[in-house]
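QA checklist item 7 of 12: single-chain prediction sanity check.
[x] sequence parsed
[x] length recorded as 292
[x] structure emitted
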Amino acid sequence: MLSYVLGFKMKITCGVELVNRAHPAISARNKTKYSVATLALCHKLKQREMHSDKDVFLILCTHKNPRGAKYKIYNNVDKLFTKFINDGKATLRFKEPPHDLIISKADPLQLKGFLHGVGLTIVGQGTGRIRLSETPTKVDRPKQKLAIMQRSDLPGKKGFPESLTWLQIQSCKLKKIDLGVLKLVHLEVLDLAHNSLKELPLGLSQLKLKELILHHNELTSFPPQLATGILGQNVQVLDLSFNNIAELSPYFCLMRKVSVLSLKNNRLSKLPRNFHSLESLRMFSASHNELK
């Protein structure tokens, strides 16, 4: 983790709920919610100047206050609540002002790096060990689309942004789907065409994909668990063309929302008997198979 923190710029995009503990009564008055906010660790002097942890501040930048609210870090954080950090959630409790910053919808890996930097700064050990951010002037929008066309651009340990709704990884010679992809709960479109995939992980069944593009791979089957899971209930566009699929399970036809389906250039000798159950189908291709 430390090597990651050294290279990670101390800025994250997340949801934030600000709670003012000076008003103990639970009411709407002492809570302010920001669906999208930027949190950054910044120095009050210019970046090129020497600094100490005593001069490092956390900046909360929102659409309502793009210049940001400023919180001193050194010896001013009463507690860090990190029980749900793997879910992208945490809470920063400040002494002065008596505010709680309840963080949500953050990328878990980035949140871990950010809070590790906060922890080092609290005890005066951040100097030279963390990479401070420039002072934000606007809220960073969460990254929603990502296209990767060469293997060297894959994120590795850094992971994929949790906010992605559209992901394309083509021509990267992938032999299996990265587990990080299966954790992208907001993903709607997944394009893994022109790779070397031989099988699909069952974890793919839990994604709410609307489009799944898998043409030009080496798949030999489409697991029935994918058709009966959450994926099967949501997918509308499915491209399995140019693979080595020889047979489809009857469960394949439970994907009732599929409107565009391409099975061309496979090794199919027949279609499932209940193929007519694909009641939403509007565009279909199965040319260049072994159908009788």
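[x] summary fact logged: Residues 108-122 form the longest helix (15 residues).
[ ] second reviewer sign-off
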